[in-house]
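Subject: for your reference before the review

Hello V.,

The reviewers asked for a structural picture of the protein, and I figured it would be easier to keep everything in one thread rather than splitting it across files. Below is the amino acid sequence we used in the manuscript, unchanged from the supplementary table.
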Amino acid sequence: MPRSGEALRTTKDTIPASTALTPTVTTVGTYFSISVADASVQAGAVFYIPAQSATRKIKSMNVPIGGASPTEGQLETAFGSDVTADATVAIIPQQDAKLLKWSASPVSAGSLIVNGVTYNADLSDNREAAAEALVAGTGFISVPVLDATTHTATITWTLF
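And here is what came back from the structure prediction:
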């Protein structure tokens, strides 16, 4: 059953909001490793790198022989530049990354930035998955990055 949310945002973060990730993350192309296993790092979850204003979905995890917790995996696509161990990394857990639709609009005069595109006070942005995805729970849309640091934004979202 779909879950919905609504919030006022005055920060730079993802829709839905990300949470800090304790282990360090490094990437080389689409491959990544984390310093210590973390249950939230699993296929379908999304890494958010604030310095790059970018999100990437985790495609798979490499489970070691013997069943130890995985610390390596692959992303669907690479970040613009490789992530180093000193980077701040957040995560959108797999259950919260099943995004069906979202919208964002400025509350007052000013602008907001969604995925690098600036929207003035009289404009907003939104995305919605195809109707088949809404029923089947597949074909989710990408988690966007919203920068509302200069003006408050109203955001809504629906998760599968």
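For the response letter, the relevant points are probably these. The domain at 19-94 is CATH 2.40.30 (Elongation Factor Tu (Ef-tu); domain 3). The chain has a mean pLDDT of 90.

Happy to draft the paragraph if you're swamped.

O.
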